[in-house]
Amino acid sequence: MIFGQEPIEESGERLRLIVRRKRGIKMGINTPVLTWEVGSAYDMFMSLHVLYNPDQYGLRGAWAAGVRSRLPNEEREFLQKAIESVWPIGWIHRLPAPQNGQTLLNALAALPGRERLPALCILPETYGQPYNDILRRVVDQGKWGDADYQALKATYRAHGPKKPKKKDLEDRLDLWARADEFGELILSGLQAYYEAFFAEEENRIRPALQAAAETGQKLAKKMPLVNLLEELAQGVRFESLPNLQEAIMVPSFWITPLVAEYSLSKERVIFLYGARPEDASLVPGEFVPDALYQSLKALADPTRLRILHYLTVEPLSPSKLAAHLRLRPPTVIHHLHILRLARLVHLTMGKEGKRRYTVRPGAVAATFAALEAFIEQDAVNADAALFDEMAEVA
Length: 394
Hints:
This protein is an alpha/beta fold. Helix content is about 55%, strand content about 10%. The strands form 2 sheets. The chain has a 4-stranded mixed β-sheet. Strand 6 and strand 7 form a beta hairpin. The longest helix has about 40 residues. The relative contact order is 0.12.
């Protein structure tokens, strides 16, 4: 669901160090223990979700297609069908250290082929038990019928934000009915992806993951969990949180600036939060930072400018914004998502899933300050390069 401490240390390939607070952070009546995990295995799956859904994450589709094209045809097409079913956050959490791509592949290879699908696709029981029951039944039977289809459809309608398409549900059931084939293809697909792209990528993102965890631990000493989450989520506010015994904080380079929540139980929750620096890009070697590009892109639209105008006056829900703008709610939600990716708005999560948006104070001014700094820095670098060329000629 896209929502004294010691410094983290790196020793060889060891990237996972759990630090537990003896003194919990007060949030209402509960004092949850904070546990910090650093592992690139989380981003191995997060990056696949982004690469196969680039528009949802503000990534340029052409570059994402280029990365996917590095995979063999069979593995590439299989991952496209399978990745939406795969959300193995709890399974990754249980992996031994170091929680990197190779550890993930070794653990998956050690499982019997038929058991790989349930391991990667089972949802937490707190909200996924009906879904899990259908999955297990179809896997055991090796086939599905209309009763399974209707049950899965009802599950999606009860818990999903969108009405499911018939073909999408049928494709998912077909996938589950071929658990043995899934097991072989998911392993070969992930191995191909790791070799073609992610082995090098995890070396690039590892320092950012560590730095984000260290920053988060420092902030945790100063503020309660609800404020800590707001800071780490870069624009999401939680009006209230359940009474937790433990909150497991996991930095993710690839989902920045979004936040994801995975409930291991009613008392234990994993929070994935953005770890990509504002001056960095998802595209390796890209000179223009993602945060600057997405902000300017978000502002270059009259509808989004009108939305920012209304949100400056008062916090509004998507439905009320739709009434102001005389647009359909799905259209407004699309624009709000772009503004959220650009870090220009605050999203407040209320009770029963109610959402309200407001402008992030100083966000627009910060965008233009970042633009000015970027242009001036570019000019300095260009002048230095020209000076070097002239010196060589002389």
